[in-house]
Write a structure and sequence with these properties.
The chain is mainly α and 130 residues long. Helix content is 71%, strand content 0%.
Length: 130
């Protein structure tokens, strides 16, 4: 008879712990992105923005799926996985940077000599009202 904790024996191996940890973090990030898609719709109430967000999530996977088998056969899979995770991390960092920007930061103000919203950002950091 096996005990209820017999599955925990796998956690004695360093490689399994690293694998399990990376899968846990990846699954958590995927869930956060799923919530973000709903959040975009909640903020904008724009079905077009929701559709474009879904399309932006789907198209790269569809397009790259056609090449994935060929690449996996030609190159080391561990290296491919590391590159993919590095790109996903950079993309997530970019989304985080976009989320931290003040509202309206992506609109260009005609005649502005400095980057968009830099003056409002300075006011925000100084704590003065706009």
């Amino acid at each position: 008879m096996t005990s209820a904790l017999s599955g925990a024996r796998a956690f004695r191996h360093r490689d399994f712990i690293r694998y399990w940890s990376s899968r846990f973090v990846s699954a958590t990030a995927t869930q956060i992105q799923g919530v973000a898609v709903g959040w975009v719709y909640d903020l904008t109430r724009d079905p077009l923005a929701l559709g474009l967000m879904g399309l932006a999530l789907f198209l790269p996977a569809m397009g790259l799926a056609l090449l994935a088998g060929q690449v996996a056969d030609c190159y080391d899979r561990r290296t491919i996985l590391l590159i993919c995770y590095a790109i996903a991390t950079l993309a997530a960092a970019g989304l985080l940077g976009c989320a931290w920007r003040p509202r309206g930061a992506f609109r260009h103000e005609p005649g502005a000599s400095s980057p968009p919203c830099s003056a409002s950002r300075r006011r925000h950091l100084a704590g003065t009202p706009p």
